């Protein structure tokens, strides 16, 4: 009886592990992001103060006690964050109109966009570490060298599209809801834990932004290796129009930016669906749009709490840990 139980447990464990696909990728990616999320905001303020605005080390080290200089730095960083956000999401916004349709047409080609997105985020982390190491580089250098290049790969957009679509492709309708929920959990749990451990890492390394972002990059490299070895290039059966089989294969860029992909994307949103499904889809889109206001406030929340409550990195990290912990529990 004991032997049968052990065999059953081994079989169950093996079957469960075989079903694991993009969950580790999402966990590593989000954990790396959250690990440096607060450190990154602190870097913006410190670099703008010391290099771009040329204030003294004494003022920048005690920026909370220098109200007039703090306001100047806050305004400068707030403008930078807006430009940095546009640079980070401008190209992916265009790619979003083509990426999903192209991936579907090519039999669920999720692995390529996922690897590209992870590579882009790795480049971002490495170049951010370089910017932190070069203490004479102005703040906007991080936009040109760290933000813009990864944006060309799709970055966050490609990662989220690929991970969720991959799970949807390889699951049955009966298990899909559970698997999508587990994927969601795999990145939600990293939000409070990543922020808390990021504070510990930052203090343990002598407030080294370079080391923090190199750890970030190392986690992304692990995610890259796992995705390259574990995932299939195509997660769904390729469906081809027999009328197009005889057509000459297009170059990649021509195939990717095919106008038909744009038309398919628009048609997906506007076409009539059975029952009230189109209304449900629009409701989800509106909800995601409203959620964006909440999500993107984090890029300016550090500035607000520093200006209003004189928060430093440790206090803000504690605040973000509690805030995100409540959010995760509520979700």
From TrEMBL:
Its predominant location is membrane
Membrane-spanning segments:
20-39, 80-102, 139-168, 180-202, 208-229, 279-294
What does the record say about its membrane topology? Multi-pass membrane protein
Sorted keywords for this record are: Membrane, Transmembrane, Transmembrane helix
**InterPro entries found in the cross-reference section:** MFS, MFS_trans_sf
Localization (cell): Membrane
GO CC, any one term: membrane
Report the GO molecular function annotations: transmembrane transporter activity
- What name does the UniProt record give this protein? Major facilitator superfamily (MFS) profile domain-containing protein
In which organism is this protein found? Cloeon dipterum
């Amino acid at each position: 009886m004991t032997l049968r139980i052990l065999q059953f447990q081994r079989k169950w464990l093996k079957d469960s592990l075989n079903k694991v696909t993009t969950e580790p990728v999402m966990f590593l990616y989000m954990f790396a992001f959250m690990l440096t999320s607060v450190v990154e905001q602190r870097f913006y303020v410190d670099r703008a103060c010391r290099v771009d605005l040329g204030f003294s080390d004494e003022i920048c080290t005690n920026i909370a006690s220098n109200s007039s200089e703090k306001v100047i730095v806050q305004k400068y960083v707030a403008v930078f964050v807006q430009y940095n956000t546009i640079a980070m999401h401008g190209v992916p916004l265009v790619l979003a109109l083509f990426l999903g349709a192209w991936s579907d047409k090519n039999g669920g080609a999720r692995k390529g966009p996922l690897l590209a997105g992870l590579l882009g985020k790795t480049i971002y982390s490495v170049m951010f570490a370089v910017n932190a190491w070069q203490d004479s580089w102005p703040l906007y250098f991080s936009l040109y060298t760290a933000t813009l290049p990864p944006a060309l790969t799709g970055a966050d957009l490609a990662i989220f599209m690929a991970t969720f679509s991959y799970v949807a492709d390889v699951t049955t309708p009966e298990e899909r809801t559970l698997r999508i929920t587990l994927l969601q959990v795999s990145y939600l749990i990293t939000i409070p834990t990543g922020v808390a451990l990021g504070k510990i890492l930052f203090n343990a390394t002598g407030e080294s932004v370079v080391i923090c972002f190199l750890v970030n990059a190392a986690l992304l490299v692990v995610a890259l290796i796992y995705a390259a070895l574990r995932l299939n290039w195509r997660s769904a059966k390729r469906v081809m129009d027999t009328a197009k089989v005889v057509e000459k294969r297009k170059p990649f860029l021509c195939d990717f930016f095919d106008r038909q992909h744009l038309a398919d994307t628009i048609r997906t949103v506007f076409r009539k669906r059975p029952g009230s499904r189109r209304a449900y889809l629009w409701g989800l889109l509106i909800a995601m749009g409203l959620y964006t206001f909440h999500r993107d406030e984090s890029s300016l929340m550090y500035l607000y709490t520093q200006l209003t409550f004189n928060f430093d990195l440790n206090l803000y990290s504690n605040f973000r840990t509690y805030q995100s912990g409540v959010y995760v529990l509520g979700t």
